[in-house]
Amino acid sequence: MENFRKLQVWEKAHQLAVEVYKSTNNFPKSELFSLVSQKRRAAVSVAANIVEGSKRKTIKDRQHFLLMAETSLEELKYYFILSFDLGYITREESERLLELAREVGRMLNGLSRSLDRL
Predict the structure, then answer these.
(1) What's domain 4-116's architecture?
(2) pTM of the entire structure?
(3) Each residue of 41-58: pLDDT tens digit?
């Protein structure tokens, strides 16, 4: 896991973060320092934890950061649901973002399982 840019899971997590930033551009200004900030932070945390874990020396440390990425991803999934329920995004956008998040989750799970075998 030396070069994180070569990891498909990082590419997909980065894509998710970019999509989250785009999707929050039109949120009400009253949400700028609450829901917008939380969604963006959680999205960036997924990709950032993959990056940080890629530089760790032990498998245990790498898996710890993958787990942190997974927990941030779960938090982000909730924010998609909340954003839809508050009327800030459409059902279609919510489903699209949730599917992208599920894809990242499957990839994180697969990477973690592959480390188990080392």
Answers:
(1) Up-down Bundle (1.20)
(2) 0.93
(3) 999 999 999 999 999 989
